Every structure is written in structure tokens, then in C-alpha cells.
Amino acid sequence: MAFLQPLIFAIVTLTVFFLAFKKYRVIYANINLGKDEKIAGDSGTRFKNMMLLAFGQKKMFRNLTPAILHGFIYVAFLFTQIELIEIFIDGFTGIHRFFWYVLPLGGFYTALISFIEILSVLAFVGTIAFLARRNLLKVPRFHMDEMTGWPKLDGNLILFFELILLVGIFSMNTADMALADGKYGFAISGMLYPLIDGLGDTTLHIIERFGWWIHILMVFGFILYLPASKHLHIMLAFPNAYYGPLDGGANKGEIANMPRITEEIKLMMDPSAPMPEEDPNAEPERFGAKDVTDLSWKSLLDAYSCTECGRCSSACPANQTGKLLSPRKIMMDTRDRLEEKGAGLREHGADHDDGKSLFDYISTEELRACTTCNACVEECPVSINPVNIIMELRRYMILEESNSTEEWNLMFNNVETNGAVWKMPASDRTSWINELEAEAEAEDA
Ligand code: SF4
Ligand code: SF4
């Protein structure tokens, strides 16, 4: 019967990885529904950016207390992977504590697991603090309109998963310490095991197996849960930071021009400029974005990478002054619409039109409220740019649907006819200087 557990473990593992592969493939396919976008910048700088932002969590340190608490959970998560590797090896080989009994790690193993246990206690503190912050402290960004229903549950669920995982780790280690009369020398479970030392070996084995299976089942559950959760950012933050705007770069915050419009303006300024070549059979180009498939793949990757932390919305001047706009909601809506659109295309074929668009999720009022100040981009810990999506939707609204306000239309007309936002010819722009000089002369006279 010794082969039974490795066999069950192998079947469960393969099933989980197969199901996870299918889910992650869908996400990859959805991101590829976006339009092509060439990302400039050398790979060395991008790699450094990724290590600082995604691995080093650089932007988290703007606010020290949550940064430290988040750091506890993050570092514990990283180091627990070592114990997880051992659990996988144990699962496949049937040898419990492979690193202790098969590899000659000895004291190093004790130190390593002790370190993981200490980190796990700190992660426990961080998790409880974050649960309290979400549910008791009423931090405004966790209670905006978009944070009800699934997003609220999702934020809490992962913290409960974390607690159950920690229970699993300590059940296993403490029971192991009791079974081996403390020979492993682990730091925290070394203090806990006298509490259960009097239980019989059978009960201790059951507790140890319970902890082991709880640990691995939570990990499997997490792998399957991740694609439906905001916690997908644990993985996607890395490519997103790699392809994100480069800190200190000259183009930070720059809004990309529309090549077609640029050509038109050049022709307007210089009618002798050569006409751009056009393919008579090409479909007319759509200005801006009506739906997710009109956005670039990077904007779609952004949508899947959003942690729903709300730092962008907290910093957004439009949101702060009571406008409907919340950049976090823009990202959540884009992801939700992308999931819907992708599912429809997979089910009904590439030409399927469900009669809906991103405008069924995001309103004109939200889009008009953006000042393009880029505060949301600056704040985002995982290099997301909500402004790109807002601008593309706004371009569609204005250029394709003529959906803009009277004041904006007036401004557009002025730019077109006067080369400036004011209703006066360019030649009159310095008239105020002449007027001031005339007034000064009149006073002196
Ligand atoms: S760029 Fe727009 S969405 Fe972003 S913070 Fe400024 S106003 Fe808000
Ligand atoms: S866009 Fe960035 S800052 Fe805004 S909620 Fe998502 S992860 Fe947080």
C-alpha cells in the first residue's frame, strides 16, 4: 500500500496542472486578442525595472506600515516555496521530509524550516492586519462602488486561504516534532509541540497528514483559483512591469499620437507634403477603441495584472472630487469585458459579434472626467496605465461618434482654426502685451 499515496498525489497533481494549463491558456489567448503594440526600450533596463517593481515591490514602500505587512506575506510566500518543493518531492516519492532524510542538509535544514516558520508567524500577523483593514477599518479605497460582490469576497478569500495554509504548515511541523521527540529542532513548532506531545502516535500521524494534505490542497486550490482572481497579479506583475513605462524615461506619461491623425495634420500644415500611400482594399481604420479588441495587448495585460488595490483611484483628482471616474474600475471593467468577449469568440467563432462593447461597462461620464494627469500611472505598484484605455475610448467617442461636449467642440474648432484652444487668431495672442504697455504709458503721462 506504500505506493497508494504517491499514486493519488500524482493523479491529483496532474489533474490540477492540466486544468490550470487550460485556464492560463485562455488568459494568454484573451491577451492576444489585443492589437499589436511595439514596446520601446532596451531589455536590460526593462529587466531592472521588473526586478525593482515586481520582485522588489519598490512602489509599495511609499507607505511604510502596509509595505512592511505586505513584505511579511510576500517574503514568507517566497521562502515557503522551498518547503513546497519538498512537499512535492515527498508526494511523488512517498518519503516524508526528503531534504532531511535523503539529502545531507542537517542543521541547514533546521535553520531553513525555522526561518520559514518565523516568516509564517509574521505572515499570520500581516494577514490578520489586512483582514482587519479591509473589514473593520473602513479604508475608503476598499469600499468604493466597484468593490462589492465578488471583488470584495475575492480580497477576503485569499487572506482566509493564507490562514488555512499557515494552519497546515504548523499542524504538520508540530506533529512531526512531537513524533520525533523534537529532533528536527524547528523554532516555532519546537515551542508548540509540547502541547500535543501526550497524544498517541496514531493521532499525531493523522495531524501530520492533515497538515500535509491541507498545505498541498490549498496550493492546488490556489493554482486553480488564481486565474479567476485579482491575485493573478502574483504572476503577471512580472511581464507587466517588464513591458511597463520605464521610470525616469523621457516618455513617461506621454500620450501616443494617432498616426493617421498626425498625417492629416501634417498635410493641413503643409499641403505640398506627399500624400500617404493607402491600400484601396483595406478596411477603414477605426479611430480609438470601441471594444477590448481595439485596445493593445499591453492594455489587456494591464487589465489582467490589476491587484484592485485602489491606489490609483485614491490618487485620482477626478475621483477625489466626487466624479464617477475610478481608474481601478476602468481596469476591472476591461478585464470583465475581455473575459466575456473571449468566451463568446471561442464558443461562436472569430466573427462572432455579441452586440456589446466596452461602452456597456464604462460610461461616457467616467471617460470625460479624466484630466490625463497620470497620477494613477504614477501610483500603480505594478506598472498599469489606465490612461491608455481611457484615451482610446475617448478617441472613439469623439472621432467616431461625435460624442463630445459643447465646450470641447468649441476648443477643437479653435485648435483647428487658430492653432490654440482660445477663440482668437494666433496673430492676436500677444495683444495683451500691447494693451498693458498702452495702459502703462497712459498712467505715466
Ligand atoms: S489620469 Fe485620469 S484616471 Fe488617472 S488619476 Fe488622472 S484623472 Fe484620474
Ligand atoms: S491599476 Fe494599479 S493602482 Fe489601480 S487598482 Fe490596479 S494595481 Fe492598484
If you had to describe this structure to a student in words, what would you say it looks like?
It is built from 19 helices and no strands. With 445 residues, it is mainly α. The structure holds iron/sulfur cluster (2 copies). One iron/sulfur cluster binds at residues 306-312, 327-328, 331, 379-380, 382, 384, 386.
Topology, please?
Blueprint: H1 4-31, H2 43-55, H3 64-93, H4 98-101, H5 107-135, H6 150-179, H7 189-192, H8 201-225, H9 233-242, H10 259-269, H11 297-305, H12 311-315, H13 317-320, H14 327-348, H15 364-368, H16 375-379, H17 386-400, H18 406-418, H19 431-444
Bound molecules: iron/sulfur cluster (SF4) (2 copies).
The site of one iron/sulfur cluster has 15 residues, from helix 13, helix 16 and helix 17.
Give a brief description.
The protein is mainly α and 445 residues long. It contains 19 helices and no strands.
Please outline the major beta sheet: none
Tally of strands: 0
**Relative helix content:** 55-70%
Q: What structural class do you assign from the helix and strand content?
A: mainly alpha
Globally, the shape reads elongated
Instruction: List unreliable stretches of 5+ residues.
Output: none
Number of helices: 19
Mean pLDDT: 89
- C-alpha termini separation: 112 Å
Domain module tally: 2
What order do the helices and strands follow?
Answer: HHHHHHHHHHHHHHHHHHH
Strand fraction equals: under 5%
What hetero molecules are in the model? iron/sulfur cluster
* Rg computed from alpha carbons, rounded to a whole number of angstroms: 29 Å
